[in-house]
Amino acid sequence: QVQLVESGGGLVQAGGSLRLSCTVSGRSFTIYDMGWFRQAPGKERDFVAAIRWSGGGTDYADSVKGRFTISRDNAKNTVYLQMNSLKPEDTAVYYCKARCNRGSLYTYWGQGTQVTVSS
Asked: Which residue in 76, 75, 72, 37 sits closest to 51, CA to CA?
């Protein structure tokens, strides 16, 4: 089985920064890509950022471009989301997603971590 464990959420004032981490563990898998999504109360889960494990190419939602940076540590099977210049509208539960190759491509989700930005 493959598991994702997130950390790094919390409460921060507008303009502040947080860094989220997500580590993948398990047996017999290779990571294809990883990403972050977020879900605010009463809203759908939205894409935030993604990174391809081979090559490191990245994608970002327009709402976070220039403020958030996604990166990875291949040796640790860990993805990071550095969030700067946070705004109250960034408040949400942030979920980590991994697509792993275990013969076929499977999708896994973390448990979510709360990010609250106060004005």
From this structure: 72
Q: Six-digit token pair at 57?
A: 């190419």
| 3-class state of residue 88 by DSSP | helix
Phi and psi, residue 74, nearest 5°: -60, -40
Q: Cα 45 to chain center, whole Å?
A: 12
- Please, which residues bridge with residue 118 across strands? 13
* pLDDT over threshold 90, residue 76: yes
Provide the residue type at 81 as one letter.
Answer: L
Q: Which residues contact 45 (CB under 8 A, 6 or more apart)?
A: 37, 38, 39, 95
| Token reading at 89 | 């509208």
Note the pLDDT tens digit of each residue in 22-48. Answer: 999 998 889 999 999 999 999 999 999
For residue 71, what are the β-bridge partners?
Answer: 80
Q: Tokens at residue 84, please?
A: 């700067």
